[in-house]
Amino acid sequence: MKDSNSNNSSKKTIKDQQLDQFTVDNDGKDLTTNQGLRVSEDEHSLKAGVRGPTLMEDFHFREKMTHFDHERIPERIVHARGFGAHGFFQVYESMKAFTRAKFLQDPSTVTPVFVRFSTVAGSRGSADTVRDVRGFATKFYTEEGNYDLVGNNMPVFFIQDAMKFPDFVHAVKPEPHNEIPQAQSAHDTFWDFVANNTESVHMVMWAMSDRALPRSYRMMEGFGVHTFRFVNEQGRAHFVKFHWKPVLGTHSLVWDETQKLAGKDPDFNRRDLWEAIESGNYPEYELGVQMIPEEDEFRFDFDILDPTKIWPEELVPVRLIGKMTLNRNTNNFFAETEQIAFHPGHVVPGIDFTNDPLLQGRLFSYTDTQLSRLGGPNFHEFPINRPIAPVHNNQRDGMHRMTINKGPVSYHKNGIAGNTPAPVPGEYGGYEHYTEKVEGRKVRERSDSFKDHFSQASMFWNSMSEVEKQHIVSAFQFELGKVQRKEIRQQVVDVFANVDGELATRISEGIGTIPPQKSGSASSLVSPALSMMNTVKLPLTRKVAVLAGNGYSDELPFVLTQLQQAGVITEIVSAKLGIIRGKTSGELEVKHSLLGADSVLFDAVLVAGGTLSVSELLSEPKVLDFVREAYQHYKPIAAIDEGVNLLPSASGDGIVTAREGDDLKSFGQSFIGAIAAHRHWLRTV
């Protein structure tokens, strides 16, 4: 029998092994930031000239100093309600001509990502489907360090300068005297802000459009909002804006639908994303870039650094450079989705900043926010935030420290450890800021080129279809109808008369204000890319409620197979849960009872034929409301034989029927086409 004490000196306990994984040896290593980004210089802060002020965008200085400030050691204020998923990104072709970023060089490189979608205004307990901007934040775990593309589902924002961000958020949040309303902009303080801060006008047009009511996170565009820089190995720079284009197209809910969903399923968007990934219908988004050479910075009639302006795609085309696929749900919502920390300052070599004053402020505020929310300066050590690139620096201690650093050295320069970890020159991968020439007096002003607040808002209005315009007008009337102070309603109408006289007049008609005297538009420009009517239209992953009961007609299984082969998801809705049997053979499992299902949870409705089936469905009075509501929401509706009797109308836009003897294959194809169209606006409801 072996001596139980033998070789103890060479063994490690389970606890020892656990601690080993957090033990880091800095000796002989390259100096990096906490995101794994190799640093080219650690002696001097970034300044506007050798004798000028230190610049706010010096993320390395701020990370280093902030960590030191917090070495002795809640719910997000905005974007509190979020949902996330894991995935991967691959570039289509090398972007080496434009950027040094390694993850954009080789199409065979698979870069892990985590994406967090969110609403902006509401608390964690609010509903998914409120009218709001949606966050679309992506963390790329690259070999050079973490890169965060922190954006929204709208390409512009409410303000031009970060100094005003607290003002905007205070105005849109529940009013402080009574904490009402939750997750809504339909109240006095928000519209008072809009009326008195006209830089918000363009963004308000987007927020009042159907873009604020996404059908799904899978069918929602994403934008980097700000102007960034690509910088290549030769030091040549291009201004760049980032876009995420969903492969399924960009689609929305209708307003009545969102209000009902907020009560019937407040988790509608997050449930949709979770179920799609679990079923293998992985959401896909193509990464697009708009690029402008530095020498063309002043070629346009708008300032390309203004975050309240877009670069119209007709002037600066979007180049699709890669695809992101979300293929894995989280294991633990809190540890991953809730603890993930994004920051626009988490960049990699080849991606740099511009003087967009809103971006400049975000480069400070995001780290500052994480310190309060995640309890200290070590949030980068949480598993979801850890870069895959190694981390070596002289930052120590602080709350929630997980790394165990060996040795006596925690400073730069040093002799004890051979002056390591050591900075890495730019030619070897260290991050170097773009050497933009900066000169001028220190002032609190904005460029005159930022002062046009109406032209692009007018272009947005001009670019909408008549259906989209009516939805915008209705949104304004609903929101302003909740505003108690008449003078604010009048002021808003007067402000939007500067966008378009017809728009302001139509708004005024519903809210009891004096119509404006102005007519015409601030711009005659049109950008077809802004209208969702021009988006991709596919039937893939659309969810169809199949209303059926015992005795359903023999044609139903054939049609279901046809739909499923086209990528449509079919779910049986009946009077009761259980198994239903066909007229002559076959059986189907009921997924939802009419008591627990509503048409707002589906994209389309199919009513099965069969006298007995229809009779059983009609035993539940709700079935007629189910179909009627889908009809009123402009959704595609199909019916077979006797099922036609349940329809509010047997014909019309998006209504497909099959009578005895009709070609079922043609019927199925017509229904699939109607599903792909998403909505049928020509229908009279």
How would you characterize the overall build of this protein?
Belongs to the catalase family. HPII subfamily. The protein is built from 17 helices and 20 strands. The strands form four sheets. Strands 2, 3, 4, 5, 6, 7, 8, 9, 10 and 11 form a ten-stranded antiparallel β-sheet that branches. A six-stranded parallel β-sheet has the order 17-14-13-18-19-20, sandwiched between helices. The chain has a two-stranded parallel sheet with strand order 1-12. It has four domains: 9-73 and 375-436, no CATH class; 82-374, Catalase core domain (Catalase HpII,  Chain A, domain 1, Beta Barrel); 453-534, Hemocyanin, N-terminal domain (Up-down Bundle); 543-676, Rossmann fold (3-Layer(aba) Sandwich). 25% of the residues lie in helices and 16% in strands. Residues 1-10 have low confidence and may be disordered. By secondary structure, it is α/β, with parallel strands linked by helices. Helix 11 crosses helix 13 (501-508). It starts with 13 loop residues before the first helix and ends in a 9-residue tail after the last helix.
Instruction: Find the CATH superfamily of the largest domain.
Output: Catalase core domain
Count of individual domains: 4
CATH class of the largest domain: Mainly Beta
Reported by name, the CATH topology of the largest domain is Catalase HpII,  Chain A, domain 1
Strand content: 15-25%
Q: Helical content, roughly? A: 25-40%
**Spatial shape:** globular
Mean pLDDT across every amino acid position = 93
Q: Total strand count, please? A: 20
